[in-house]
C-alpha cells in the first residue's frame, strides 16, 4: 500500500511530484494544500472566532478583561508558545521546570537570565512573586484554584487553562495568542501542525495494535481524556484505557498482563526506562516484551503544539512497516522550522535511529 506524503516547509507544502518514489511508503495521507483546511483547523477557526480589543477572555475558571494587547508575561505552562509566537523579548520569568528543554534553550540563548518562577509543574505558583514581577499576564495550568484566585485578588492577571483534548488545547493556545494580538500568526502556524495530525490515517479496527501508555509507574496508564488519550484515538490504536474517562488511572498488574499489549509507550518524563520493563520477570509473556516494542518517548510537551509530532512518532512506532523513519524525522524537523524557526531540530531522534537500526 502506497500513500503519498507532502513534507511541510516554512512557507509552503512541497509539490507532490517533487517527492521521490522511495519516500512514499508512509502511513500518512497526502498533506492538504495551503487552500484546503484540515477538519481540526476548521474547528479551531470556528471555535476561536475573531477578537478586537477591548475584550474579555474566559479561561477555565474566570473572566479577565484586556483593554489592550498584553506585552510582559510569565508562562508557567504552555511554555513552548513563547517560542512559537516569538514572545521572548517581554518575558519577565519562566516556569522552573522547562529551563532544560532543548527547544526553548535554542529558541532563546539567554533563557538563563530569566527568573525561575513557580514549582515543578505548571500549576505551582507563588502569588507574592508574581505580584512583585508584575507582568501583564501569567499563564498557568488550572491545578490550584485557591492560589489562582488569591493571585487575582492581588491584582495579577492570571489565566488558567485545563484542555481535555487536542482540539481544546489548540483553542486555549489560540486564546493565549489573542491576548498578545498574535492570533493571525498562531493560526498561520497551527494549520500546518493540525494538517499533519489530520493526515494520519487509522488502520481498520481489526488491524489496530493493542497499546498501553504508561505514566510515572507501570500500573498508572492513560485513559481516554487529555492530550495523550485523544492522541491515541487519533493515531488508531486500541488503548487499554480507551473506555476510561480520565487522564490517567491505576490498573492492577494482572489486568495489564491480561490485556497483553503489543506496544507499550512510556511517558518521556517517567522514571521508568525501557530496560525496567524488559527485565521485569512478570512481564515476559507480553507481546510487547517478546517483540521488543517498548518505547520511551522523547520529553516533548504534551500541552503544546508538538503533541502533533508525538502523534506522528507514536503512529510510526506502532505501525513500522508503513513508515520510512528518515521521512518521519524530516517531517518533524520541517514542522519545527515552521513553528519555531529552528532548522534541523532535533538533529537526532534517538528512538527512531535505534528502531531503524535494530535487527529485524
Commentary on this structure:
The protein is of the alpha/beta class and 360 residues long. The chain contains 14 helices and 13 strands. The chain has helices at 39-48, 80-85, 102-107, 127-133, 145-153, 166-179, 183-199, 226-235, 253-259, 274-278, 287-290, 307-318, 325-340, 350-357, and strands at 55-58, 63-66, 73-75, 91-95, 116-117, 137-141, 158-161, 210-214, 220-222, 238-239, 248-250, 263-266, 294-296. It has a five-stranded parallel beta sheet with strand order 5-4-3-6-7, covered by helices on one side. A four-stranded parallel beta sheet has the order 10-8-12-13. The radius of gyration is 21 Å and the shape is globular. The two termini are 20 Å apart.
Describe, in short, the structure shown:
The N terminus is likely disordered. The radius of gyration is 21 Å and the shape is globular. The two termini are 20 Å apart.
Largest sheet: 5 strands, parallel
Secondary-structure element order, N to C = HEEEHEHEHEHEHHEEHEEHEHHEHHH
Q: What proportion strand?
A: 5-15%
Task: Strand order, main sheet: write it out.
Answer: 5-4-3-6-7
| General shape | globular
The helicity comes to 25-40%
Q: Mean pLDDT score, rounded? A: 89
> What is the CA-atom radius of gyration, in angstroms?
21 Å
Furnish the topology, listing elements before pairings.
Layout: H1 39-48, E1 55-58, E2 63-66, E3 73-75, H2 80-85, E4 91-95, H3 102-107, E5 116-117, H4 127-133, E6 137-141, H5 145-153, E7 158-161, H6 166-179, H7 183-199, E8 210-214, E9 220-222, H8 226-235, E10 238-239, E11 248-250, H9 253-259, E12 263-266, H10 274-278, H11 287-290, E13 294-296, H12 307-318, H13 325-340, H14 350-357
Parallel strand pairs: 3-4, 3-6, 4-5, 6-7, 8-10, 8-12, 12-13
Antiparallel strand pairs: 1-2, 9-11
Helix pairs in contact: 1-6, 1-7, 4-5, 6-7, 7-12, 8-12, 12-13
Amino acid at each position: 500500500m502506497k500513500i503519498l506524503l507532502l513534507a511541510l516547509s516554512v512557507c509552503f507544502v512541497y509539490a507532490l511530484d517533487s517527492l521521490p518514489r522511495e519516500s512514499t511508503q508512509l502511513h500518512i495521507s497526502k498533506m492538504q494544500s495551503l487552500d484546503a483546511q484540515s477538519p481540526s483547523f476548521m474547528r479551531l477557526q470556528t471555535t476561536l472566532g475573531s477578537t478586537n480589543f477591548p475584550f474579555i477572555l474566559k479561561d477555565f475558571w474566570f473572566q479577565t478583561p484586556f483593554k489592550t494587547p498584553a506585552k510582559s508575561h510569565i508562562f508557567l505552562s504552555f511554555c513552548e508558545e513563547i517560542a512559537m509566537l516569538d514572545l521572548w523579548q517581554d518575558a519577565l520569568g519562566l516556569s522552573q521546570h522547562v529551563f532544560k528543554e532543548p527547544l526553548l534553550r535554542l529558541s532563546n540563548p539567554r533563557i538563563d537570565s530569566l527568573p525561575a518562577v513557580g514549582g515543578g509543574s505548571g500549576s505551582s505558583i507563588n502569588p507574592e512573586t508574581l505580584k512583585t514581577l508584575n507582568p501583564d499576564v501569567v499563564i498557568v495550568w488550572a491545578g490550584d484554584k485557591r492560589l489562582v484566585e488569591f493571585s487575582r485578588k492581588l491584582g495579577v492577571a492570571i489565566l488558567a487553562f485545563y484542555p481535555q483534548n487536542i482540539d481544546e488545547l489548540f483553542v486555549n493556545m489560540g486564546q493565549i495568542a489573542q491576548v498578545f494580538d498574535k492570533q493571525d500568526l498562531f493560526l498561520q502556524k497551527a494549520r500546518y501542525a493540525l494538517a499533519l495530525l489530520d493526515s494520519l490515517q487509522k488502520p481498520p479496527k481489526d488491524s489496530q495494535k493493542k497499546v498501553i501508555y504508561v505514566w510515572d509507574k507501570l500500573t498508572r496508564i492513560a485513559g481516554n481524556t487529555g492530550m495523550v488519550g485523544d492522541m491515541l484515538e487519533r493515531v488508531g490504536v486500541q488503548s487499554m484505557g480507551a473506555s476510561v474517562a480520565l487522564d490517567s488511572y491505576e490498573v492492577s498488574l494482572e489486568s495489564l498482563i491480561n490485556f497483553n499489549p503489543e506496544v507499550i509507550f512510556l511517558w518521556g518524563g517517567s522514571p521508568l526506562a525501557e530496560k525496567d520493563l524488559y527485565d521485569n520477570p512478570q512481564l515476559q509473556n507480553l507481546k510487547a516484551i517478546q517483540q521488543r516494542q517498548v518505547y520511551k518517548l522523547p520529553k516533548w510537551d504534551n500541552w503544546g503544539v508538538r503533541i502533533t509530532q508525538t502523534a506522528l512518532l507514536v503512529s510510526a512506532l506502532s505501525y513500522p512497516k508503513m513508515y520510512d523513519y528518515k521521512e518521519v524525522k524530516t517531517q518533524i524537523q520541517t514542522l519545527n522550522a515552521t513553528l519555531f524557526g529552528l532548522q534541523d531540530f532535533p538533529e537526532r531522534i534517538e528512538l527512531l535511529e535505534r528502531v531503524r537500526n535494530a535487527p529485524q
